[in-house]
């Protein structure tokens, strides 16, 4: 009995030694097929030597259990979506093919973008194939399998027939996007105006209802929308950018061999066209898979290809540099939560690119406020002079400007001004600012100018009633200004309140800047609260300043 | 000219008028909301109680200062990101609520004035509240064009979309001019309506003034100032 036990122990030790040797050198032995067979055989031997529930190696545990638990999406049509026959799609078929290759049963576990990595860490799934982009940030959270099984890119979708070929055509245009999408920063960097939505499904809804003219999202998402003939008849993909490789992923602990095996398997799937054919079956874009097949059936079909940088796509670098004071901002957030019970997220002060946007936006807003505060009274004075003292042609011209400005909604006035500016000199930050200042100044200045003219007319009337000698024009105008000071002040404040509308024509002021920031920091509540408080406070603080200036004007007029 | 109208899709004018009707609808909801909030504020502002006046004044000042466009964005983003993930307000209601602070502040100011006149016995001067209300409504119709920024299919959105679809810059300008013509006609018609209402109130005032010998006419009352909502 003792001898038999000793023999068994020796056999187990030998198996363990062989397994350890295999552990030390996980690289494929020769070509992918041989490497896969060797890896699987080694793992099966280890599994055959004894299965323990708490075995460290995940591959051994999968083989022992006879089941591969794969986390998949359930609401991503063409990739993994619910159908009458259960879950179906490209990723579901890939999961089935992998389970078959390992010789185990497949268990599909629904996951979401929020929990797909956490479930790997909690050992609730062995593998996730769930539309997950491979980014440098996620590399620290899960072990990604390369070569990648798919690659998506962000595409801009718009109406057929609308000329739009690259980023240059996006300046000043409104694009509907989902909040938190990494590619939003690139769109806003090209002066596109972003309209944020919670989910990609809302983008299609908005496009279908023509409430959005342009939308940007993963091509993998739009693939399903384009299967609808009505949608495809109206919209088309304009251009794509920011490609992201999609990776299957396993947990960080005890997954070296599982990851190695899946990498070899992925290389084989590319080489044999399994990825490509499966994708074609489901009608999704195959450009990346065609290139991969060509590579893996050619120069990458070797034992060393899995370590070859030219054969493997790099993860997308998404790390955002922090501001030097990010730590202090964290402390402020914690203080607010602790003392006030409010969960404030001040991402715009912690991320360097967001901070740069906000700082520039605040400067531009300041310039806009200053500009309209000066332009409105200046235009008012010109119109007041023309209406009150000008000859007939000048009066008619001023009258025409007033009627035009009163007849045109503010947004339309700004759009027309921007279109003229774009036609004449092109829209840049500076020309956009100047255009917005002139347009807002004209709208409010025309109202205030008419108030000045009315005041001058009423002064003339008063003088006539009293049978007084005609007042010299310069004095009459000064007194008219004093009499209309309340109206002038009101329209200056109104112009200041109107400055955020400049964002509509793409001026990178604070509203646009904070919307851009929210679009990639995925935080909106604090951002829009801050925005509302900023503008309301700006108006509240400027009201007494304008009133004080008006009082000064009145006092000077009465002193003379 | 013919080429321009040929370039427009069939039924464009009707489509545009349909869109403009949404501007009217938004302004109507905004005005109702403004009345609901503004009238109690007006009562407080004109009240004999100092405490009520102190409570109502900062609220009215805040509403007066809130920029409509930013308020609209705030509501659009915050309510969309609210609990449950779904939008609590439709885009049309979002704009109507965004117009509410402007309407409420204006109604509070002019309503308080009207109440003071009423108490002082100037009933006809108090009646000027009505034309001012109509005027505010038309200003809000024009201001509701900001809803194009959140994708409401109203008049401005339709004009902008059509302008984008035109092949040349002069044709784009033509579409914009068409928009000015439509909105301008509405605004001028509204101002004419305000004038008619004002003349009616003035006639009432004159009538009462003639009945009260020696009483001073309050013809000079022009109601509170009004400016376009941004």
Features of the shown structure:
heterodimer, A: 560 residues, D-Maltodextrin-Binding Protein, domain 2, MetI-like fold, three-stranded antiparallel beta sheet, B: 230 residues, mainly alpha, 9 helices, flat
Descriptive overview:
The complex is a heterodimer of chains A (560) and B (230). With 560 residues, chain A is mainly alpha-helical. Chain A has three domains: 26-123 and 249-307, D-Maltodextrin-Binding Protein, domain 2 (3-Layer(aba) Sandwich); 150-245, 3-Layer(aba) Sandwich (D-Maltodextrin-Binding Protein, domain 2), CATH 3.40.190; 348-559, Orthogonal Bundle (MetI-like fold). Chain A is 58% helix and 11% strand. Chain A is built from 22 helices and 13 strands. Chain A has helices at 2-24, 32-48, 58-65, 90-102, 118-121, 184-189, 200-208, 219-225, 229-234, 256-271, 274-282, 287-296, 326-340, 347-350, 352-389, 392-407, 410-424, 429-465, 473-483, 485-498, 510-521, 525-559, and strands at 67-72, 75-76, 80-83, 86-88, 105-110, 127-128, 143-144, 150-159, 174-178, 193-197, 215-218, 235-246, 249-250. In chain A, α6 (184-189) links the parallel β9 (174-178) and β10. In chain A, α2 crosses α3, α15 (352-389) packs antiparallel against α16 and α20 (485-498) packs antiparallel against α22 (525-559). Chain A starts with a helix and ends with a helix. Residues 17-29 of chain A have low confidence and may be disordered. Chain B has 230 residues and is mostly helical. Chain B has a single domain, classed as MetI-like fold (Orthogonal Bundle). Chain B is built from nine helices and no strands. In chain B, α3 (50-65) runs antiparallel to α5. The longest helix of chain B is centred in the C-terminal third of the chain and has 43 residues, at 169-211. The two termini of chain B are 33 Å apart. At the A-B interface, β10, α16, α17, α18 and α20 of A face α3, α4, α8 and α9 of B.
